[in-house]
User: Which sequence fits this backbone?
């Protein structure tokens, strides 16, 4: 016997998953975590709710230059969020540091010194022996003097790294290149190849 209201409930759950995404820190169970972020899943919808919807009355009043200035002011931040999503999606689909990696997620919470710590990307190797820690930036390389130094400091404060081999990666729009010893620098070409 089919119950039509159950079909609708399942359909609504699937639609909800298309529009909103719950994120929890790497290594934390979705069921047990109180540390959650909810984000609009689709980049186009994020753009709409960030730039179009709040400015609808201005757009209807044909105040296009004002809205354009607001978009230009904050557009890089929007693109940076989409870039982070693309980088995380590429991790299990490409061999970084000659290893296969599982799902990549961000991590936030207290570090070993109990002060706040945030990483853009954490993934565990398929064999469980290594961690990939990464910083994802949408800033041109000259503005990023030493992102790998800050990443190494964060890695030293992260309890998850104990007993694991740690690989550090920095993703920027200008990659690939070398930042420092033992740090990979990757760019859009590597990410897009993995996502094809």
Assistant:
């Amino acid at each position: 016997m089919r119950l039509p209201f159950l079909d609708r409930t399942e359909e609504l759950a699937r639609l909800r998953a298309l529009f909103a995404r719950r994120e929890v820190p790497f290594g934390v169970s979705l069921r047990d975590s109180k540390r959650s972020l909810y984000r609009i899943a689709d980049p186009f919808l994020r753009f709409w709710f960030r730039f179009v919807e709040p400015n609808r009355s201005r757009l209807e009043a044909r105040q296009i230059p004002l809205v354009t200035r607001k978009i230009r002011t904050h557009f890089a931040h929007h693109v940076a969020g989409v870039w982070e999503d693309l980088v995380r999606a590429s991790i299990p689909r490409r061999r970084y540091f000659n290893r296969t990696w599982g799902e990549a997620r961000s991590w936030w919470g207290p570090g070993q010194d109990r002060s706040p710590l945030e990483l853009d990307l954490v993934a565990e190797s398929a064999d469980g022996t290594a961690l990939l820690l990464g910083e994802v930036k949408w800033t041109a390389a000259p503005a990023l003097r030493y992102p790998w130094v800050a990443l190494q400091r964060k890695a030293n404060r992260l309890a998850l790294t104990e007993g694991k081999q740690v690989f550090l990666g920095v993703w920027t729009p200008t990659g690939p290149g070398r930042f420092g010893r033992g740090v990979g620098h990757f760019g859009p070409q590597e990410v897009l190849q993995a996502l094809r």
DSSP finds six helices and eight strands in the chain. Residues 64-90 form the longest helix (27 residues). Strands lie at 20-23, 37-40, 105-110, 116-124, 130-136, 165-171, 177-180, 183-186. The mean pLDDT is 85.
